Amino acid sequence: MKPLAVRCRSLIKRYGDNIAVNAIDLDVEQGQCFGLLGPNGAGKTTTVEMLEGLHPVDGGSLELFGHSWGDGHDHNMRQRYGAQLQATELADKLKVREVLRLFRSFYDQGHSVPELIEMVDLGEFQEQYFHTLSGGQKQRVAIACALAGAPELLFLDEPTTGLDPRARQRLWAIIENFRESGGTVMLTTHYMEEAAKLCDRIAIMDHGKIIDEGTPRSLVDSLGLVQFVEFETQQTIDLPRLTALAEVESVEQRGLTYRLRIGRDLNALRVVLVDLDQQRVVPVGLSTHQATLDDVFMERTGRALLGPTQTGQGAQASVPRATELAP
Amino acid sequence: MSVSPPGDISAPERYSPLAELIKTRLREFFREPGMVFWVFALPVLMAVGLGLAFHTREPELPRIAIVNQGPMGLSQALTTATNLNATLTNEAEARRGLRRAKFDLVVDLGGALPVLTRDPAQARSALAQIRTEDALQRAAGRQDTLQFKVKSVLAPGNRYMDFLLPGLIGLNVMGSSLWSVGFNLVVARKRKLLRRYAVTPMLRWQFLTSYFCARSVFLIAEMSVLLVVGALFFGTILQGSLLAFALLAAAGAASFASISLFVGSRLDNTEVANGWVSAVQLPMWILSGVFFSYERFPEWLHGPIQLLPLTALNDALRAIFNEGAGLLAVGPQLAVLLAWGAAGFIFALKRFRWG
Question: With a cut of 0.90, is the ipTM above it?
C-alpha cells in the first residue's frame, strides 16, 4: 500500500446536539482520487473542512501527510494541499491574473501565473474582472487558485455543482490532468456520474456515516447481476404475484410508478413483461438500465427516490401510504 | 493543458504575499467608485458647504430711515457715516419699514430736536441709536477726548474654518478607517472569502497588516485633499509641522483601524455591521468636537469626552494645526489613541473568525 495522504479514525464533529460527522474512518492513498458521495447534509463538506483545518475535530483522529492540525506543522500542511471550497466568491474587483498572483504569493513554491492560466484554459479571460466571468469560468479560477502552490493533495468540494454539462466536462479534464501528474484528489459530490468517472475509490456518506465504500465497480457489482425496470401504469398490479417471480428480486412502488429489480438477462425482462400482460397491465414509459451508483445509493440508504423499498422474495407487499411518500 | 507533477516546479518566481495583499486592498478600494466618493469627495463637499455657511463676514450695518431732513449738516453726517446704512424716505414708509424690521431706527430731523424712534425689543436698534447719536453729536461739534486703537482678531488660526478643518480631517480618519477595515472584513466573511484565505498558508499577520498599510496610503491622500482644499478656498494654514500632523493622523488611523478590526472580527452580516459601524461613530460625531467645541457640554462630561478616541485625535490635530504644537505637547491625546488601538487589536485577535 502506498503512503496515506489522509487518514481518519472515528472522526466526529458535533454542532450542538446534531452529529454532523459520526465516527468515520477514511484512508486516502497518495495518487488516489477519493470521492465522498452523498446527498446534501450528509456531512461531506464538514468532513473535508475538518481535513483542511477549518473546523476543530470533536473526536477521533485526523492526519494529513502524517500530521494532525495543531501539532506544529500547520503552515507546512497548508503548503502541501490546495482547496476549492463550496460557494466561495473570490474578490469581485480583481482581474483573473491578479487573483492567481495573490494566491500564488502565499505558497513557497508552485506554478507560475501564466502556467496556471494555461492549465485552466483562461488565457482570453485573464484581464477580466472576476465578477464578469460565467459560473464555469469562476470555478476554473477557483481550481487554479487551489493548484497555485503545486499541491500534492487537492480538495474539491462539489466542484461542478450548478455547472452546465460542457463546463463540467472541462473541469473533469483539469482534474484528470492533475491526477495523471501524480496528484492526490479528494472530492465531494452528489453526482453519481461524476464520482464514477473521476474516482478510484468512493465512500458513500449519509447522515454523517459512511454506509459503503469501495471502487465504483465493486460498489455496483455488490448489488448482484441485476438490472432495473421502471414503468408507470393506471391499472392495479397484483404485487405479491409479481414479487413471487424467481426473476424479480424486489419491487418498489410510488404512486403510479413501479421500479423492479430483476436479473440481468433478457429472459428476466421477458418473464416480467409476460406476467404484466397476463395481469392485463399496460406499462407506460417502460425503461431498463444497468445498475449504477445511483442504485447503490438507493439500496444502501433505503431512502430511495421511489419511496419505501420492498425487498426480498415473499416480502409482504403493502401499498405504501401516501404520507410516507410526500417529498 | 498540462499540469506539472507535484514537486517539479518549472518557474522559481516568487511574489511577496504582503505586497500582493496590500495591492489587493488598494485595488478593491479604487475600483469601487462608491468608496472613493465617501472617502474623498464627501469630506471635501462637507468642508466647502460648512465653510460657506460659516464663512466669516462683516456683520450687517444698522439700517436707519431719515425723514424730514432739517439742517443739511445733520442728515449728511448720517448718510456719510461708515458704520450706518441710512436711507432718506417719507414718514409712512419709515413707519412701515420699522414695523417690518427693514429699518432698525427712524430719525426725524424736522423738529427743534431730532426725534429717534425705535423698537426696544430689537437689540440692533440700540446699536443704531448709539451710532446715530454719536454721528449727530460729532456733526454738532463734539470733540472726542479719548482715542482708541481697535484690533481685529480675524487672523488665521482663530476663525471657524480653522476650528472646523482639523475636525473634519479627524472625522474622515475615523469614518474611512471604520468602513474600509471592519466593513470590508464583514463583506469578505459573508462572501466566504476569509475561509478561502484560511485554507492557504497565508500568514495571518500579513493579512491584517495589509489593512493597516492600505489605510496609511489612503490617509495620505485623504489628508492632502482636505489640507489643499482648506488652504485654497479658506486660507487655512497648518501652523505646526506637517510631519507631526501626519504622524498624529496615522496614529489616529491605526487606532480606529484596530477598533474597526474588533467591530468586524466576527460578524458576517453586512446590515448588522452597518449598524455597529454607525453606532460607534455617531456619539463621537456629536460629542468629540467636530463641528462645535465640546466645551459647550456640561463641565462634568468633559473628562469622559476627552477619553473618546475622536476627541483625542481632534484636540491633538487642532493643537498642531492652529497652535503649532509639537508631538510632545499632545502626548496625553496620543496615549488615549494608542490605548484604544491596543485594546481594539488585542480583542480583535481574540475574537477573530475566518469562517
Answer: no
